[in-house]
């Protein structure tokens, strides 16, 4: 066989597209003929692949494997548990979303004008603002009364520590 045909077959072999007959041709080439130095690694690969196996398989291995497989298939599958869990999680998610997007239980309050004319509303607003202002001024007066003793205490402390 020519060297370029062997190299093409090797390319096909490494691409995984060779037929069993083509692989047999490669094996015979590497077994029987002298190999160029650049193909020596490939020759070693084919020699190792076609070396007879020294591993012995016990006769009882097949029976043990069959019993093991049958024993595992008799147990309930974990896959069923995962499916049930996924179904429950989906239901919980749907219930949560339904509560999230549902209408509030309290009815919506619609505000209505409490005064029949804008002048009455204006007068009431002025009265409420005057009441708030008066209460605020009383509170500020009380704070002013507290500032005097605090200021005296500060002066005494400054004298003591200076």
Number of strands: 0
Low-confidence stretches: none
Mean pLDDT over the residues: 82
Shape: elongated
Helix content: over 70%
- Rg for CA atoms: 48 Å
| Distance between the amino and carboxyl termini | 112 Å
Count the helices. How many?
6
Strand content: under 5%
The largest sheet, given as strand count, sense and whether it forms a barrel, is: none
Order of helices and strands: HHHHHH
**Which structural category fits the helices and strands?**
mainly alpha
Could you explain the architecture of this structure?
The protein has 6 helices and no strands. The N and C termini lie far apart (112 Å). The mean pLDDT is 82. The protein is mainly α and 162 residues long.
Q: TL;DR?
A:
The chain has 162 residues and is mainly alpha-helical. 73% of the residues lie in helices and 0% in strands.
List the helices and strands and how they pair.
Elements: H1 3-15, H2 20-32, H3 40-49, H4 61-74, H5 78-101, H6 118-161
Helix pairs in contact: 1-2, 2-3
Relevant terms:
single chain, 162 residues, mainly alpha
């Amino acid at each position: 066989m020519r060297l370029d045909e062997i190299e093409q077959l090797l390319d096909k072999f490494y691409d995984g597209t060779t037929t069993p007959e083509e692989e047999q041709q490669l094996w015979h080439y590497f077994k029987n003929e002298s190999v160029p130095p650049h193909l020596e690694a490939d020759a070693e690969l084919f020699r190792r692949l076609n070396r007879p196996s020294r591993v012995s398989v016990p006769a009882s291995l097949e029976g043990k494997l069959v019993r093991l497989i049958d024993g595992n298939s008799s147990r309930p599958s974990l896959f069923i548990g995962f499916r049930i869990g996924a179904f429950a999680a989906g239901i919980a998610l749907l219930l949560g979303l339904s509560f999230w997007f549902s209408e509030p239980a309290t009815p919506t309050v619609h505000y209505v004008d409490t005064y029949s004319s804008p002048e009455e509303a204006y007068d009431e607003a002025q009265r409420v603002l005057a009441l708030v202002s008066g209460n605020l001024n009383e509170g500020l007066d009380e704070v002013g009364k507290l500032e005097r003793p605090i200021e005296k205490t500060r002066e005494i402390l400054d004298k003591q520590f200076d």
